[in-house]
Amino acid sequence: MDATTVFVIGAVMILAMGWGMVGYLRRPLKRVLLDVCGNEGRAQFWSDFSMVGMGLVTAVFAVSGRPDPRPMEPAMFALADQLKSGLLGLTGSVVLLGCVLARSGGASREKKAS
Q1: C-alpha gyration radius of the chain
Q2: What is the distance of C-alpha 94 from the center of its chain?
Q3: N or C: which end of the chain has fewer CB within 10 A?
Q4: Does residue 20 belong to any structural domain of this protein?
Q5: Is 102 exposed, middle or buried (0-12, 13-18, 19+ CB in 10 A)?
Q6: How far apart, in whole angstroms, are the C-alpha atoms of residue 10 and residue 22?
Q7: In angstroms, how far apart are the furthest CA atoms of the chain?
Q8: Which residues are CB-contacts of 29 (< 8 A; sequence separation ≥ 6)?
């Protein structure tokens, strides 16, 4: 397999994983954001914003992990390197989103307790 084919396969796999993660988190995230934001409109905006951000970060990391066209290296290793880059981007965006929500959720609970 040539480097271009490996790159395209890797990018498609990472983007599919990213879309899957976005689909999986959409409903629970919206419920949390509704609690944090206080109304449907704000929760919808921040939910959509977060989903787009996760998708874009994943895409950037997926295309930044370009395989080196080394003739002796099996294509599977080049693909694994690209997948690792994309998964790091996806993981980083999910962790960052979780940290932001954890801080916001704490502020929301403090407001309600007052």
Answers
A1: 18
A2: 6
A3: C
A4: no
A5: exposed
A6: 18
A7: 65
A8: 47, 50, 51, 97, 101
Q: Is the pTM of this model over 0.85?
A: no
- Categorize the per-residue pLDDT at 75 as very low, low, confident or very high, splitting at 50, 70 and 90: confident
User: Does 2 reside within a domain?
Assistant: no
Cα separation, 112 vs 80, in Å, equals: 47
Contacts (Cβ under 8 Å, ≥6 apart) of 49: none
pLDDT in tens, 34-63: 888 888 998 999 999 999 988 888 888 888
Total tally of structural domains belonging to the chain: 1
- Which residue's structure tokens are 């003739």? 71
- The DSSP code sequence of 14-82 is HHHHHHHHHHHHHHHHHHHHHHHHSSHHHHHHHHHHHHHHHHHHHHHHHHH-PPP--TTS-HHHHHHHH
Domain assignment present for residue 62? The answer is: yes
